[in-house]
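Quick one:
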Amino acid sequence: MRKVALDLGARKTAYCEVREGKVVQRETVTAVQSLDSLLGPEQPPAVVAIEACREAWYVHDLLTSWGNEVVLVDTTRSRRLGIGQHGRKTDRIDAEVLALALERGGIPVAHVLSPRRRELRRWLGVRRALAETRAQFVTTARGIAREYGSPLPHCATERFVSNVCKKQLAPDLQAALEPLLKMLEINSIQLENVELELAKLCVTEPVIALLATAPGVGPVVATCFVSVIDEAKRFRCAHHVESYLGLVPSEDSSGGKRRIGAISKKGNKYMRALLIQSAWTILRTADRSDPLRLWAEAVAARRGKPVAVVALARRLVGVLWAMWSKGTAYEAARLAAAGSRGLSQAAQSLEFRAEALKKASKKQSMKKLTAAAVTH
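Output:
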């Protein structure tokens, strides 16, 4: 099969085809659809390498539908192929380097998310943008109120607008806050609609409710975990998942001396941030007899809370992966006795699983939305 590489850009895409170590054809187009004459269904099939990026999934599906074999390249390891060496990095050069590496073999392949998990990630991205925007509006409003010497009382973000409207504010302050309050009202409506769409998707993914039985794990964390990992069984062990999410220590053992550093911070940043938040929740609010909290408190006593929280987030990943792999709900007693590996091998009664799911539903902020999604 032909060996081809594409360098996908915002304004143009570079095409490079190689044979026996030499470039045989180059093209530059403004849209991938324009490559129909080179990679379309009427042309001989090709193995096409593309770097993982925003449009990579769409391009993957399009080229595959044309009869080509698409290789998605892991961008975190693309430099070892020669991309960007010697300070030379252009679309033409990148496409050529990628095509030659494809012909040689040894391309670091990235995972292609399934369509269902892409949908989850897409709606999670919209929800994240709306939630961060709401938080920024609230922070700005509180700052303006402090400038007027009228600090606003603390409350849940979703109740901010109604609480501000109840207060008797100075006319100048009210006028300054009015645009923010109107935008927050619109934001809240849109956020509720997005969460309803997410809830509908979650109903079709039973594993999300299962993962939410773990302490510190709500529907957003569980949904994000599923959307990032995609399939639990593509990982051989919990450590591989922890490494994939950048929660394992970095290491430099060159020169015969082993050096262990901070966590690698590779992989999905948002997922890692959510796991850290979950770890803090476990350490502060989980049942005092829960084995995860007891373990984290023991680490905190030796190394301090920041280190303990990161370690707990890493361990939580292993537990979630084990639960998903074996279809088990969180069971503190089994975890205390056997750790995450034992949990993955333990059988659970249907009664225990049903009870765990029932308890988990009580702590979920999206419970009502999920119920509404079921009725639609």
